[in-house]
Amino acid sequence: MTTTPESKPRIALLFAGGTIGMLSDHNTGALSPAHDAEALLNTVPELKSRIDLTLIQLFNIDSSNMAPSHWSKIAETIAEHYDDFDGFVVTQGTDTMAYSAAATSFVLQNLGKPVVFTGSLIPMSELGADGRNNLIYACLVASLNLGEVAIVFGNKILRGNRTVKNHESFVDVFHSPCFPLLGEIERPIHLDEWRKRRHDNPISVHPGFNSNIQLITLFPGLAPKVIDSVIDSGAQAIIIQGFGPGNVPFLDNSIIPQIKRATSQKIPVIITSQMEKSVTNLHAYEAGYKALEAGAIGAVDMTLSAAVSKTMWTLAQTDIYSDRLMKLTANIAGELSVD
Question: Cβ distance 260 to 218 under 8 Å?
Answer without folding.
Answer: no
